[in-house]
Specification:
Largest sheet: 9 strands, antiparallel
Helix content: 25-40%
CATH topology of the largest domain: D-amino Acid Aminotransferase, Chain A, domain 1
Number of domains: 3
CATH superfamily of the largest domain: ATP-grasp fold, B domain
Order of helices and strands: EHEEHEHHHEHEEHEEEEEHEEHHEHEEH
Number of strands: 17
Structural class: alpha+beta
Shape: globular
CATH architecture of the largest domain: 2-Layer Sandwich
CATH class of the largest domain: Alpha Beta
Strand content: 25-35%
Radius of gyration: 20 Å
Length: 361
Amino acid sequence: MKIGILGGGQLGRMLALAGYPLGIGVRCYDPVSDSPARDVAELISGPYEDAGALARFLPGLDAVTYEFENVPAETVRLIEKTVPVYPAPRALEVGQDRLAEKEFFTALGIPTPRFQRVGSAGELEKAIGVTGLPAVLKTRRSGYDGKGQFRLLRREDATAAWQSMGGNPAILEEFVPFERELSVLAVRSRDGAAVCYPLIENVHRNGILSVSRAPYPDPLLQKTASEYAYRLMRELGYCGVFALELFHAGGRLLANEMAPRVHNSGHWSIEGADTSQFENHLRAVTGLPLGSTAARGFSGMVNIIGDHPPVERILALPGVHLHLYGKSPRPLRKLGHVTVTAGDSAGRDRLLATVRELLGA
């Protein structure tokens, strides 16, 4: 069996690695010829709109998936005429537009921060009256890892905030003074069977995920987050791994963003769960039975950002696992991650503190 992946970044790389033990081959498609998947999978390179390059990508594929939600939806719908695509394009279209995403959450009764559409400086002024201040102005499309966002503390910030959008459609969201950021990953098969991973607690720096800890031990929040994920996947007719980012504030869970793909906050599952998110995604899109999502003890992850890590010092630590993506250093670039595993939360947190110190994270 052979699966095509739109995107050849680190997520495509880890999907390819998860496919080998299952006898699943992978071919990736990416506009960048030296993307991380090049070392472990066949890679076709070309613009997403290049019909000729796509024609070289598709032959022999049993299904196509994606590791990046900003693939043009038109490309996916074109591919779908030849090869089945999972998740379905509708999930991609909703996940590409922050306004459509928030409206989708609201329509399904999932609470979110207050938000307003913004298409002009005048609309921004009106939106502030609804969301209040502080608030965050975000581009509706193509923003990730904190990009395309501007925080408004005072009304006087509105002019500079709108100029930062460059006239692009935006959304204004109230700033939520959350107690913690959480995420839940779920996976749904072709036949509608679905399972959730344990809740994950996340810490961001400069808008980029820095540290994740799993499981987050709150059965009530786990039940609520899982139900939200199941509700969203059912409505989308979803197949594959799905991530939902949440704010825990005032005893409630507020949906922030969804990702129709495997997710950075789920990297702990490679060593820390019975079945990694990458293996379960491949199981789902190929029609294989889903694997157990149970946690094996307590796990954590630290992203390696900007500079290469001290490899020998990290590998000398017990219960620590290093994953490098084959990228060259660059400020704010994810070069890899480190996962830690332990028998209790205290042991995990000690290991995480040591790793963070070594990485300066």
